[in-house]
Amino acid sequence: MMTHQSEKLNDNESSSDDESMTQDSPVNDDRNDDDYVNVEFNDLNEEEKENPHMDSGITAESNDDDESPRADETTDPESMDEDICHAFYELEHQKEKAMEQLSNVFQLLNIDPIHDRSAVLPIRAKVDEVYRKLNRLCDVLDEKSQVSYDPNPHGLRICESNDLLDGLKKLYADSNDSEQVRLMTIAPKEWGRQKIEKWFNSKSNQARPSLVLRKNNGILAYPQCLRGNIPLSDSTIDAVVNFYREDGISRTSSNSKDTIKIKGQPVAVRFLEMSVLDAYHIFNERHPGTVARSTFNALRPREVDRCLDAQQMVDILTNKNLSLEDQVRELQ
Questions:
Q1: Is the pTM of this model over 0.90?
Q2: Rounded Cα gap, residues 329 and 314, in angstroms
Q3: How is the chain split into domains, by residue range?
Q4: Residue 305: in which H helix or E strand, if any?
Q5: Which stretches of 87-193 are assigned E, i.e. beta strand?
């Protein structure tokens, strides 16, 4: 009986030891912690329901901290100021260097030094003077007379001379072929055909005649027509045509149906009251030497017909194939 009680006592002690080990184990502790967190989380949810903006500030603040923009070095005002200062000092350095070089050149050629760097126009005048003095030195090597040769006879600055040459090129571009050949005769005598073509941007069939024209007739001579004849002006052509249409030189046909179409428009036929030769003599008295006889005849308008001479009248009257009405019409 004592043995049985001791076994029961041992069983109770072992069960109590197992319970104590279970309570002290880590797994059991984790479960207890999770239960505690869940309780707090549920409490927090209840509190958030009552105040929904409580956690948004915390989240926004954390996001602001995570996504804070980094300072851009390119937009740094200090770096921009440094770049501006660097460019300014670089420009000043270049100006000082240019002043030093120009002063050395002026001193070498006995030209007055520069007193004001901001006055650029007088400095350019000194540069043009340097150009003229250098040309005189080249004339010494070329054995040219320094008295008779003036490198700047017109008193123009280099930029002004360039402006005039640009205007000459524009005039050449706006001129017709004949005027272009005439303008090319002002090229320097030392220039050949190829250089004239290059400077004027012309064709070889213009540069070559310009050299011949300048050699035979001088500078700015008028070129002759390639056919050997001077082309007639519009005013001369109009004078001849209007002369043919004058009353007393020609008359309108008595037949109102006697018309011809010119450019789709009916024009009344006119008949000369004299021969073409007589009309030419009258025109030549008014405008002596204006046109030749052949040209005068070629310019006769289509609606102006020649008059009939006596032989033509006889042929018409003796023509048996014509009725009396046709003969009268032919004689009109």
A1: no
A2: 14
A3: 103-155, 158-217, 234-307
A4: strand 304-305
A5: none
